[in-house]
Design goal:
about 25% helix, ten-stranded mixed sheet, alpha+beta, globular, 10 strands
């Protein structure tokens, strides 16, 4: 059974991520600074919960994501993160995403509306050319593809509307 859902996020905010946290997160996944997409700098993005955003240069890097769940839980809990939002910009308005959720004891979340809202607010903050909305494919690599759409208003810090499809598990 497929369900449609929508949420309106709390206010959003973002800030540059601490260099030490970025280094630790990259090491967790076996990535390097050279693997990052410089157009979307590492950041802490919030929309009711904290997420570390790491944008990767290629879809192959995103697909290859792997990490130790216990080490991920330690890192996320120490930094107060709910997820680490790994993103790949397929185009200005289309993103492929993986959301390790070790803080909750889950290797990866297939559809994270809260992370999508936080990421969308961050894109607005960096003046990314979103033209009012973005589409996110999440869960593809774990065999549970989810499609999310985030509608982004121009007002800094304003709420993000996230909608998409979900299924009962």
């Amino acid at each position: 059974m497929v369900l449609k859902a929508a949420l309106q996020s709390p206010p959003t905010r973002s800030a540059a991520a601490n260099a030490g946290l970025v280094t630790d997160a990259l090491a967790l996944f076996g990535y390097t600074k050279e693997d990052l997409d410089g157009r979307i700098p590492p950041a802490i993005a919030e929309a009711g919960a904290r997420h570390l955003v790491l944008a990767l240069k290629s879809r192959a890097l995103l697909s290859a994501m792997s990490y130790d769940l216990d080490a991920g839980r330690e890192l996320m809990n120490a930094a107060g993160l709910v997820t680490i939002n790994l993103v790949y910009a397929a185009s200005a308005r289309s993103f492929e995403v993986r959301n390790p959720f070790a803080s909750g004891g889950v290797y990866e979340d297939p559809a994270t509306g809260a992370a999508a809202a936080a990421f969308s607010g961050y894109l607005r903050d960096i003046a990314w050319p979103h033209d009012g909305s973005i589409d996110i494919v999440q869960g593809e690599d774990m065999g549970s593809r989810s499609l999310l759409r985030a509608e982004i208003a121009d007002d800094a810090g304003s709420s993000i509307r996230v909608s998409g499809t979900a299924r009962i598990m």
